[in-house]
Model the fold of this input.
Amino acid sequence: MTTRRPALDRVGAWLAGVIGAALVVLLVGTVVFFAFRLLPGDPTALVLGDQAGEAERAALRAQLHLDEPLARQYGRFLGSLAHGQVGPSLRRPDVDAATLVLDALPATALLAASSVALGATLGIALALCSVALRRRVAGRVADRLIALGASVPLLAFAPAATWVLAVRLRWVPLPADPDAGARGLLYAAALLSLPLGAAVGRIARASLEVAAQSPFLQVARAKGLGSLRVWLVHALPTCVGPIVTVVAAQLGALLGGAVVLERLLERRGLGTVVAEALAARDLPVLEAAVIVAAALFVVVQAAGTRVHAALDPRARA
Amino acid sequence: MSRLVWPAALILVALVVRAARSADPRRLDLSAELARPSGSHPFGCGEGGVDLLALSSEALLRGMALAAVVAALALAIGTSLGAWAGLRGGSTARHVQRMCDFVQAFPSFVVALGVLAAIPRPTRVHVAVVLLATAWAPFARLALSELRVVRGLQYVEAARALGAPAHRVLVRHAIPATLPVARAQLGSSASALLVADAALSFLGLGPSDGVALGALIDQGVGASLRAPHVLLVGTGALCVGALVLQAIADPKR
Done:
């Protein structure tokens, strides 16, 4: 039974949530801002190399406003942030760094969303096998697969799998193939979905085991409902809440995996932008990437909590 | 102690290889560029003719050393923090719990990339500090939940009733109670740290001499059409390292 809180209370809570989220993004942006300016080492030497002349360094320092007092630099940073900008990219000074990052975001978001869909499906299927078919071979195989997915690192099997499937068997497009299209996306999403699938599988299995003991399931069985229906329609909805929470918590790992995978398969996206900026030490782009990642994090967390509450009345505040 | 057999064996093998082979992992021999496995180079050669057996064993040793050190520090910091917060209970415990949730879910890899990029020549210490910044969270969370159980136990109540100061209750009773579960987490954390370090060096943030698992895998990817054995050695080494570290946390008792 949900209690209806006064409307003002709910608006207040929503506002607090938004402010909290904005504070998180601001905090992360501030950490990176100061990291770039306070860590030992001259940023201009980082970007231009040790051999650069003093004139070039002075020019770059002026371009990055590094010769201004720190407080003024921070004020300038906050001002641009309010306009959704971070400052010009070092490699392409006519473009704002935030624009470069945001342009690359949709491709990565598509990859991430596809892997979430695939991973959640895989995890649920494995968990169902493991619990419903516990006494059969299929159940034990599902258990092993969940353990395997959780322990073998993406960085280890992705290159090896790509070599086997793309280079030797030609079943999937080669990395950097411009015509990769949907098959390329599907392959990348499949790779990225495996660790997520294992995490979802674990949580779903635990939830289903609890549900398996519960009275309501026994009632469903006693009513004479078919086994599949019992599991899918009655048991599965109980683990949707924890699954949503796990998926939201896996965003960090998903973004990290996307960076590595995009670099490996040479797909355009946030990962390649970050890798290129890293190689060229394009600091504004890296700043923008971190801030965008933080913003994504708060949005996904908030969405996850909402979806969880919507799907599972027990989770409502 | 059988859970430590596999990591110990692996480390021993790697050390023996390192001591026995005179090949320096940094030594280049251009005439043996990307050579296939043979008598003189059991794992073959990588770019520049570097001996892959020496390179992979040295990189694995370094990676495991970093992972072990950071995991041990994370256990010390996280368990202490979680146990202290759990003992105090109330809003302290809630705040620490929230912090753990936040740190664990946060895309810290991207932030780590950003921070490490600002350092001209990131050393192992820089990487260790950046990884430690998030590695403590699982241990703190475990300690918190263990403490919820432990706080109710009679020997802790008795200690407090006898007037034992808070830090003594913590050190004598609370922390030892959390250690068994923390040990299980140690294995999976160490494994994850090994992989994170490899991912960082894969993206170019590793040591400048190139002796790192990620750099080795990067070499393998670049040479995968001409010399697939390099990729096999790199990914195999990482897999073995990660699985062996996981073995410490084997839940099957």
Remarks:
- DSSP finds nine helices and no strands in chain B.
- The radius of gyration of chain B is 22 Å.
- Residues 10 and 244 of chain B are 8 Å apart (CA to CA).
- Chain B has a mean pLDDT of 82.
